[in-house]
Amino acid sequence: MKRIIFATGNEGKMKEIRMILGDLDIEVQSLKEAGIDVEIDENGSTFEENAIIKAKAIAEAKSRDTICDTIVLADDSGLEIDYLNMEPGIYSARYMGEDTSYHIKNANLIGRLEGVPDERRTARFVCAIAAVFPNGDIKTTRGAMEGRIGYTEQGENGFGYDPIFYVNKFHCTTAELTPEQKNQVSHRGKALQMMKRELCEHENINCK
Fold this sequence. Notes:
Layout (H helix, E strand, L loop, with lengths): L2 E4 L4 H11 L5 E4 H4 L12 H16 L7 E12 L5 E2 L13 H11 L9 E11 L5 E12 L15 E3 L4 E2 L5 H7 L1 H17 L5
Parallel strand pairs: 1-2, 1-3
Antiparallel strand pairs: 3-4, 3-5, 5-6, 6-7, 7-8
């Protein structure tokens, strides 16, 4: 049976991924479940480059195991705030240090936007997903979700920058959306849906 290894250890992210790819006739594993632990230097200059770097590194690591019919997926995502010259961008996970809590990161970004009106608080979440197929082919997809930065953290359903990202369509932050609502409009949801089509076409996977 084919399997997908998604290059992440983030349980919140894996929950979203499994919801969207759950109707594929294929097993989806996290790095931990696949028994892979490698350090990856994400030194790309775009979301796509970083996603490819991660996917290729995991593909090389998994090539040492006994299951060869494996597709590796990796994503790189982040928050772009127009008023802050697209920061934190590709450095979103490393912004203010990888071990810094998102409560502190979110408070810092809100503080940097003090006095900035709604119409200038525009922002977007961006997600690029890269796939490395068993034959070595590489495909990428990109999704984006437009919104703006709020004034306080709101909601408990999301993770990362979700509590400060306000979605006009739902009149709330992404941390206040249900998982089903979020997957309809999220950057990762859009990129995963596009990648799902790539998987079905490239690997002849049964898409229910």
